Amino acid sequence: MAQVQRMSRLMVKTLRDDPADAETLNHKLLVRAGYVRRTAAGIWTWLPLGKKVYENVARVVREEMDAIGGQEVLLPALLPKEPYEASGRYEEYGDLLFRLKDRKGSDYLLGPTHEEIFTQVVKDQCSSYKDLPVILYQIQTKYRDEARPRAGVLRGREFQMKDAYSFDTSDEGLAEAYALHRGAYQRIFERLGLDYRIVSAVSGAMGGSQSEEFLAPAPAGEDTFVDCPACDYAANTEAVTFALKPASTEGHPAVEELDTPDTPTIETLAEHLGVPASATLKNLLVKVDGEIVAVGVPGDREVDLGKLGEHLAPAEVELVTAEDFEGRADLVRGYVGPQGLDKVRYIADPRVAPGTSWITGANKPDRHARNVVCGRDFEVDDYLDVVVVEAGDPCPACGAGLKLDRAIEIGHIFQLGRKYADTFQLDVLGQNGKPVRVTMGSYGIGVSRAVAALVEQTADEHGLCWSKEVAPADVHVVAAGKAVQTELALDVAGQLGAAGVRVLVDDRAGVSPGVKFTDAELIGVPQILVAGRRSAEGVLELKDRRTGEREELSVAEAIARLS
Ligand code: ATP
Ligand code: MG
Ligand code: MG
Ligand code: MG
């Protein structure tokens, strides 16, 4: 017996007009259809219909995480600062972190992600190689004081994430755990009905080496990625270090000496610079017209601004805040990363046309170079030209013209390696009786964001349009008329419910059929079953929400069809 939800008793208030401040489809439609309500900037309340969809997404995530052996736990969101101080992230996160004090004056934070705490949990619970490998996950509320919390539930300051962490004693074990998550993510996004691409990414503030993002193409997305129409190459423009092509090689020895007629690859660059290929853009300075404009250092290294300052004429540097930069990659030519923790210096360059993207690697406020010391980590003469990826640029894998697209980051998987294990000395006793340092992976899915991404990809001019897997109900029964219609609608709804079908039935009195139809389309349940004109004969009309196809059916036929 599935739930039969009566609209007459459901707390749902639909709106004819978009909320005044809404820019994105998910914001407009989820509010208009009564799924969510804005409580404050980037802070959302999930109303009954919204909560159902959210829970359906969470269920799919849980099922697939359980299927790869994940064990669900629940960590606190309110966290002591010490573990984050130990990892350096208490400082590194800067303004993104919500910080607070308790009554005794001790420092706390609201968790933005939980690598530190999971590492401590495993250190406490696992002592031998026999206790590993282990995959832990939670679906939990995260807090990030995003610079521009807009775009509805797509970018919240409070939001729900599924974060998983793998713990292994060997690199092969980590690779295996990574592959398991990659597969689980593919199944999750397929089941949810999201169109997505897997792209190479930079690991940014997380640290670690290999990292891939799951991107859902949509105009409302805040990431730009390149996609090859001819092969399977795809990368976030933040990570297209492979596609470096010299704009001009004159006077730039690092490029000049590369004896390759083709696009330099990361391997040829790395070889030239004498660094391992895994170093990506580390140790790279970027100059434009003789000026250092960027330090291509994704990750957690400090730029020594004092040293860099010698190379920058202050008059030529425009000071803008990190907030100004968010989402404006098209305006920014380069950056000199962080001065203090929140203010980042950027050089805005109007010569870069809108629609193109900046690619030195770390181009977000939470992605800036830290702990890099000039002279130790790079030499001032190691530089390359500024490169901008544009649509049509040759694919680094096959040479075909690249496409450039906007997308929503719905998931992100990282091979963290031993960064956090080193911080917290996470060792287990190895097979030979000696301690082994544990290696970790970290894997996130934006659960609330996935709901928004679904709306961005699937809604149409009439409203929301859910797939069966995530819809708040399987069938929306509409009583379009008076007593006869309502009686039939409730009767059919009851029978469907008894057959295990999740039903929403619009039994509201004093609401016109026109309004009910409009609401049904807006709410977006996949099948709409109308008790209308021919109700007295027991004939219903079934309408497919997506295709709009209609068909007349008897009660028995409708029940057989839908259950
Ligand atoms: P973004 O680039 O959009 O800021 P992120 O790279 O900072 O995201 P991660 O740290 O990789 O995010 O977190 C894992 C996942 O959590 C992301 O892939 C995304 O789906 C989700 N997520 C991150 N920030 C938010 C947010 N502010 N609101 C909703 N979901 C988010
Ligand atoms: Mg972010
Ligand atoms: Mg990101
Ligand atoms: Mg990410």
- Which structural class should the secondary elements be placed in? alpha+beta
Summarize the amount of helix as a percent range: 25-40%
Percent of residues in beta strands? 25-35%
Number of strands: 29
Structural Rg:
27 Å
Distance between the termini: 11 Å
The 3D shape can be described as: elongated
* Major β-sheet profile: 9 strands, mixed
Mean pLDDT: 77
Query: Any ligands, ions or cofactors bound here, and which?
Result: adenosine-5'-triphosphate, magnesium ion
Number of helices: 15
Poorly predicted runs of 5 or more residues = 203-208, 241-270, 272-388
Commentary on this structure:
It catalyses: tRNA(Pro) + L-proline + ATP = L-prolyl-tRNA(Pro) + AMP + diphosphate. Its EC number is 6.1.1.15. This protein is α+β, with helices and mostly antiparallel strands and 563 residues long. Helix content is 26%, strand content 26%. The protein contains 15 helices and 29 strands. The strands form eight sheets. Strands 4, 8, 9, 10, 11, 12, 13, 21 and 24 form a nine-stranded mixed sheet that branches. Helix 2 (48-67) packs antiparallel against helix 6 (171-192) and helix 2 packs across helix 12 (447-458). The longest helix is centred in the first third of the chain and has 22 residues, at 171-192. The radius of gyration is 27 Å and the shape is elongated. Mean pLDDT is 77; it is low at 203-208, 241-270 and 272-388. The structure holds adenosine-5'-triphosphate and magnesium ion (3 copies). Adenosine-5'-triphosphate (ATP) binds next to strand 9, strand 21, strand 24 and helix 12.
